[in-house]
Every structure is written in structure tokens, then in C-alpha cells.
Design goal:
mainly alpha, Outer membrane efflux proteins (OEP), two-stranded antiparallel ribbon, 65% helix, rod-shaped, disordered C terminus, Outer membrane efflux protein, efflux transmembrane transporter activity, OMP_efflux, MdtP/NodT-like
């Protein structure tokens, strides 16, 4: 979907089933997934603060490089266990909220894909019907011109046949344009529109 490129036209598999992994290419789904992952990681951080921690500390005297000190330090959060547990519970709640948001984004993505697929499928059926109408009107126009040349048809009748043929061509062109728009919407809905290397099939 490059700027200035030719009008896209849906490939034969444009309305086929969409793999779930394609939906992960959507920026909104990616953002929700990362927020969920960060929230889950926050649970681990809050849980770790409930347990004893060991830190290693050391120093070297600037005046005498041979003088140094090194040793471990053990800390155990006894007095603030209540607040630490509250933080852990808050982290769990945040992760649960992030998971619900992620699920909502995925459902929105699925609905977008289904809507785009439905629109494209209906428009493709319409194009098939309009092509049949155009072919029929073109045949009528051809016969009308022959009849007009033989003096068997009036000019007004010939003009009516030409208008009908022109109208069918215009309707078909509009339907093809709409199909291209629906195909583009489907590519964006599946996340392909956000991949630099993606190209229409």
C-alpha cells in the first residue's frame, strides 16, 4: 500500500480465514499485549519484595589500593509486610485489568476483520453480477447499432442503449473501486497494512 501505487485489487484468497497471528501485527493489539506482559512482570517484582534480599557491598580505599572491604547484607521486610502485600495485590489487579483490555482489543480486531471480509465478499458478488449486466448491455448496444445502420431502429432508441451501456460500465467501475477500498480495509484490519514488507497477493 504505497502512496502513488496502482489501485489494489483483492486476490483470490482475500476473504479466506485469517490466521490469529496476523492480528498480532496490529498496533492496538501489540500495545495491549505489551501492557499485559508488563503488568504480569510487575507481579513478579511485587512478589519478590515480600522475601528476604541479599546485597553485596564493597569498597576500595583511594589512598591505599590494598585496603578494601567486601561483604553481603541481608534484609528482611518484616515491618512493612502489609504494604508489600497490598502492592502485590494491586499488581495482580493491574494485570487482570490489562488482560481484559488485551482480550477486548483482540475481539475488536476480530470484528474488524469479519466486517471487512463480509463487505469484500458482498462487493465481489456484486461485481460478478455487474459484469454480466455490462456484457448484456454491450450486446444490446451492438445489436442496436446494427439495427440503426439498417434503418430499423430510431436514434433515440440507440441513444438509450448507449446510455444503458455507459451506466453499467460506470456501476462496474464504482464496484471495483469499492472492492479495492474494502480489500485495503481488510489488509489494515489483519495488521498487514502495518508491515513494511507486506505486499498485496
Amino acid at each position: 500500500m504505497q502512496k502513488g501505487a496502482a489501485q489494489p485489487y483483492p486476490g483470490k484468497d482475500a476473504t479466506a480465514g485469517v490466521p490469529a497471528n496476523l492480528l498480532r501485527n496490529r498496533p492496538d493489539v501489540q500495545a495491549a499485549e505489551r501492557r499485559f506482559a508488563a503488568a504480569v512482570a510487575g507481579i513478579g517484582v511485587a512478589e519478590a519484595q515480600l522475601y528476604p534480599s541479599i546485597t553485596l557491598a564493597g569498597s576500595v580505599t583511594a589512598a591505599d589500593a590494598s585496603t578494601w572491604s567486601f561483604g553481603p547484607a541481608l534484609s528482611f521486610p518484616v515491618l512493612n509486610q502489609g504494604s508489600l502485600r497490598a502492592r502485590r495485590d494491586a499488581a495482580v489487579s493491574t494485570a487482570a485489568t490489562a488482560q481484559l483490555d488485551w482480550r477486548a482489543q483482540v475481539l475488536t480486531a476480530v470484528q474488524d476483520v469479519q466486517t471487512a471480509q463480509g463487505n469484500l465478499s458482498r462487493k465481489r458478488r456484486e461485481i460478478v453480477a455487474l459484469r454480466a449486466v455490462q456484457a448484456s448491455n454491450d450486446r444490446v448496444l451492438s445489436l442496436s447499432r446494427t439495427s440503426f445502420d439498417l434503418g430499423e431502429l430510431s436514434l433515440l432508441d440507440l441513444l438509450d442503449a448507449e446510455r444503458a451501456a455507459d451506466a453499467s460500465r460506470t456501476s462496474l467501475a464504482a464496484a471495483v473501486r469499492d472492492a479495492a477500498q474494502f480489500w485495503t480495509a481488510l489488509m489494515v484490519a489483519t495488521g498487514r497494512g502495518w508491515l513494511p514488507a507486506a505486499a498485496p497477493s
